[in-house]
Write a structure and sequence with these properties.
The protein is mostly helical. The protein has helices spanning about 25-35, 40-65, 70-95, 95-105, 110-125, 135, 165-180, 190-205; strands at about 5, 15, 140, 150-155. The protein has 8 helices and 4 strands. β1 and β2 (about 15) form a beta hairpin.
Length: about 210
């Protein structure tokens, strides 16, 4: 659960975060922290590489899936959501400059699509299994189970957010709107292809020696 304020990891000042994984009160503090921690340890690089591999393997398995029963298919979709959002959060939290640099390399429309896709997937992560079942999110398509990647995201009503603090409600409502705009009605396979493509490029940027 998010809170309204947190302490800057560089200077210790209290600030109101504008981003879910914000760690610093200003760009100056972020740059200062990055200079002090410029070299990622081999263990950190290995962990990121391992999570990228796990994400890719899960998504590849989903894209190849044919004729699975619904519980099995729902499980691999949930797993793909978990891996994608975990890798995304790790890159945003620990490698924000590299992440933002790759994002900035796209045109405005493409950036909005990428950011909206991740916002929508965060909404799925936060809601699936806690407030909504997988069947609320996923619409199977085709005879029997068919091609799992062709299943689509369902359109959803606005969520109840009274249990969250005010800023948390704002963030989750933004994620909901991004879900409706960028995921609802779209094939799950296309969503994961788009997310994984960006994350692989962003992770390569983080792991490439400078």
């Amino acid at each position: 659960m998010v809170t309204d304020t947190r302490n800057c990891e560089q200077c210790g000042a209290s600030f109101a975060p504008r981003r879910e994984h914000a760690r610093f009160c200003s760009a100056r503090c972020r740059v200062a922290w990055n200079r002090l921690h410029a070299s990622a340890s081999p263990a950190e690089g290995g962990a990121l590489d391992w999570t990228i591999t796990a994400m890719r393997d899960t998504i590849d398995r989903l894209l190849r899936a044919r004729g699975w029963d619904r519980p099995h298919a729902f499980a691999v979709i949930s797993e793909a959501v978990w891996w994608v959002t975990m890798v995304d959060a790790t890159l945003v939290r620990y490698h924000p400059d590299a992440y933002d640099g790759v994002l900035a390399g796209h045109g405005a429309a493409r950036r909005r699509e990428i950011e909206g896709t991740f916002g929508g997937l965060r909404f799925v992560r936060n809601q699936m299994g806690y407030y909504l079942d997988q069947t609320h999110f996923i619409q199977p398509v085709g005879p029997s189970a068919g091609v799992i990647a062709a299943w689509t995201w369902r359109s959803l009503p606005e969520p109840g957010l009274d249990s969250l603090p005010v800023r948390g409600q704002e963030w989750e409502m933004t994620r909901y709107r991004e879900y409706q705009a960028w995921l609802a009605g779209q094939p799950v396979g296309e969503t994961f292809r788009r997310a994984a493509t960006f994350l692989r490029v962003a992770s390569d940027s983080c792991l490439t020696p400078r």
